[in-house]
Amino acid sequence: MWRDLLPVGRNAATGGYRRHAWTPADADCRAWFEREARDRGLWYEADRNGNQWAWLGDPADGNAVVTGSHLDSVPDGGAYDGPLGVVSAFAAVDALRRRGAVAGRPLAVVNFTEEEGARFGVACLGSRLMTGVADPAAARALTDSGGVTLAEAMERAGHDPSALGRDDERLARVGVFVELHVEQGRRLAGTPHPVGVGSAIWPHGRWRLDFPGVADHAGTTLMEDRRDPMPGYAATVLAARESATRMGGLATFGRLRVAPNGTNAIASLVTAWLDCRAPDADTLEDLVAGIAAVAEAAGAEITAESGTPLVTFDRPLRVRLARILGGAPPLPTGAGHDAGVLASAVPTAMLFVRNPTGVSHSPHEHAEEADCLAGVSALTRVLTDLLADDPSEPAQCEPGPPGGS
Ligand code: HGY
Ligand code: MN
Ligand code: MN
């Protein structure tokens, strides 16, 4: 599976991946998923929101055990963020079948679309639409950097965008969701544990900041006559860094658009995207308010693009997973996941596979093969245990708090 995925959407210059939703690279990833499903004799479908499913057993039986992740990437992302969860899910299905451990409950592997929000700006768009957290009309109108709407992009990729939206029928079939993911930090490095159990996801969100200016000549406009948006933007970046450090949160400006983007022209508009995260909702709110105040003083207009509240994964399920895995440690994370969105609707858990450097969202992201195999084995044990539940009994777990807005 890794060999087949290796060249898909790979940027030869950096070694990173550019697998943005509904692009040709994404189509190749989707074709790969469908092939993996069909080659195993699993029942394949793409849902109304474009998420892909591979079923073992009859979905109509309900109370399904679902596992999977995403195949899309950030610009120049690593190989593991997303695909590790999907590859491990298929590998776990193979292991379960080898052991004859497939029981009464249906089992599905899922690939959620546009998890990174790298093309249309809203992270976890596929799972947000499915759970009704994202508005379908607003989603259809989202545009990429070239002005292409999500609706147009989906149509071009052969997927009808008219039926986007909350999918209660599908949600009702899911009894439990477990997402395996590469760790995006170094908490497991240096411990004897190749796998941890997700405990919580920090509240986080994305904001667009538009700093307006007036274009003029770099060589003739006096410094005092300029209406240059760049210094206001720069002051905001420095304020974000200082406040996040002081408050124990995280603030990142990783994407910037400058118009008209000329070396010898004062900018007429600077658009910057803020990614902000904190251990609790109050800290996040205070952090963003402080950054926004600096930006607004520089004349910026601020638009919230997506937000995800604190997610605490289902406690009984976490305890159960840690027990199955012989005391795998609990891991909180600042990274968002579809599991965080699903947690508002169904009992949900996460497994993290050790990342020796902690690096992620980078071509240098890495996981050792032995740890990846330990991840597959852990997922297989977890799925075996969950599948053994009486299919007539819903899972004895409580869904978490609402998953996002
Ligand atoms: O950006 C994130 O938190 C993620 O990796 N989707
Ligand atoms: Mn990611
Ligand atoms: Mn991911």
UniProtKB/TrEMBL annotation:
Chain sites annotated for binding allantoate: 206, 264, 277
Residues reported in the UniProt entry to bind Zn(2+) 1: 70, 81, 181
Phylogenetic placement of the source organism: Bacteria, Bacillati, Actinomycetota, Actinomycetes, Streptosporangiales
PANTHER family in UniProt: ALLANTOATE AMIDOHYDROLASE (PTHR32494:SF5), ALLANTOATE DEIMINASE-RELATED (PTHR32494)
Cofactor, how bound (note): Binds 2 Zn(2+) ions per subunit.
Keywords: Hydrolase, Metal-binding, Zinc
Name this polypeptide is given: Allantoate amidohydrolase
Cofactor: Zn(2+)
Parts forming coiled coils: none
Binding-site list for Zn(2+) 2: 81, 116, 361
Taxonomic superkingdom: Bacteria
Keyword Cytoplasm found: no
Membrane-crossing residue ranges in chain numbering: none
Family that this chain belongs to: Belongs to the peptidase M20 family.
